[in-house]
């Protein structure tokens, strides 16, 4: 589903002509199969967000290619990216990123409005999703009237509204208390099982490992193997994933069809 192939990335910071090069990711090979829940873990500054931004096309790798659903997205123009992103990715953020002046219903509906979907279809889709995330009673509430857990469930509904095969989540439980965190992770697990949605999640949260099929550890911009039995984040090393697991098994898109 997502193949990151020999990707390295560096940022240039500072004034033009006097830039300083900051290498952030080094030769990343990672394959996420359709229907997997993969957690990306690693210390602050290890390059997790950069990797997610590369996969979602907000930045382009300095070296290497990324394929999503069999297409080499690193070759896309900005216009191609905008369409592709809408169709293929839903996003969940630590800070929810709901529009405060819109109700829960309107926040979930917005991507459908932008896509030009008709009113009746929009109503059905949004109501179905709000019901799915357990928020039918809160459709008319504004984000400020909802708890953090409820807001995050609205943002899950919004992420799913265009039916993307992949959800990219950056610290989805980072702002939640432990009860809401558990509920959100259970919801992610259910959505994955029911609908085969692929989740790629950045996390510092050990609970996420319980719902993730595997974790990928980034350390100083490199993927590291994770020996069995060690802690999740304590020493930056956790449960094992053989590098072989990360190898591309090609033609994932074929198996989706
Ligand atoms: N746009 C940018 N320009 C320059 N440097 C950047 C940029 N974005 C990220 N970096 C640098 O790249 C490195 C990795 O950052 P990144 O945000 O990917 O790490 P992270 O693992 O997601 O960290 P955190 O867990 O704190 O969110 C950091 O040193 C950061 O300062």
UniProtKB/TrEMBL annotation:
The record lists the organism as Paenibacillus hemerocallicola
List each copy of the ABC transporter domain by range.
2-245
Provide the taxonomic classification: Bacteria, Bacillati, Bacillota, Bacilli, Bacillales
Q: Which SUPFAM superfamilies match?
A: P-loop containing nucleoside triphosphate hydrolases (SSF52540)
Keywords in alphabetical order, please: ATP-binding, Nucleotide-binding, Transport
Instruction: Answer whether the UniProt record assigns the keyword Transferase to this protein.
Output: no
Q: Does the keyword Nucleotide-binding apply?
A: yes
- Domain of life of the organism encoding this protein: Bacteria
Q: Which GO terms describe its molecular function?
A: ATP binding; ATP hydrolysis activity; transmembrane transporter activity
Residues in the signal sequence: none
Gene Ontology annotations for the cellular component aspect, listed alphabetically: membrane protein complex; plasma membrane
Which Pfam families does the UniProt entry name for this protein?
ABC_tran
Q: What is this protein called?
A: ABC transporter ATP-binding protein
């Amino acid at each position: 589903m997502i193949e990151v192939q020999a990707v390295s990335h560096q940022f240039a910071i500072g004034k033009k002509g006097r830039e300083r090069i900051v290498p952030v990711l080094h030769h990343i090979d990672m394959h996420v199969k359709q229907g997997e829940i993969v957690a990306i873990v690693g210390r602050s500054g290890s390059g997790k967000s950069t990797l997610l931004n590369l996969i979602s096309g907000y930045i382009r790798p300095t070296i290497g290619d990324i394929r999503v659903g069999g297409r080499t997205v690193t070759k896309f123009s900005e216009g191609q990216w905008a369409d592709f992103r809408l169709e293929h990715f839903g996003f969940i953020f630590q800070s929810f990123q709901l529009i405060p002046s819109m109700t829960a219903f309107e926040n979930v509906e917005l991507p459908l409005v932008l896509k030009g979907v008709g009113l009746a279809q929009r109503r059905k889709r949004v109501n179905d999703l709000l019901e799915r995330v357990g928020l039918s009673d809160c459709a008319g509430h504004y984000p400020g009237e909802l708890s953090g857990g409820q807001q995050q469930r609205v943002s899950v509904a919004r992420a799913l509204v265009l039916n993307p095969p992949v959800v990219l989540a950056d610290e989805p439980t980072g702002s939640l208390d432990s009860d809401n965190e558990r509920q959100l992770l259970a919801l992610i697990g259910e959505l994955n099982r029911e609908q085969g949605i692929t989740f790629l999640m950045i996390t510092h949260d050990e609970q996420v490992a319980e719902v993730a099929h595997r974790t990928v550890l980034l350390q100083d911009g490199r993927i590291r193997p994770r020996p069995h039995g060690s802690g999740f984040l304590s020493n930056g090393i956790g449960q094992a994933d053989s590098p072989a697991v990360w190898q591309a098994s090609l033609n994932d898109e074929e198996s989706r069809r």
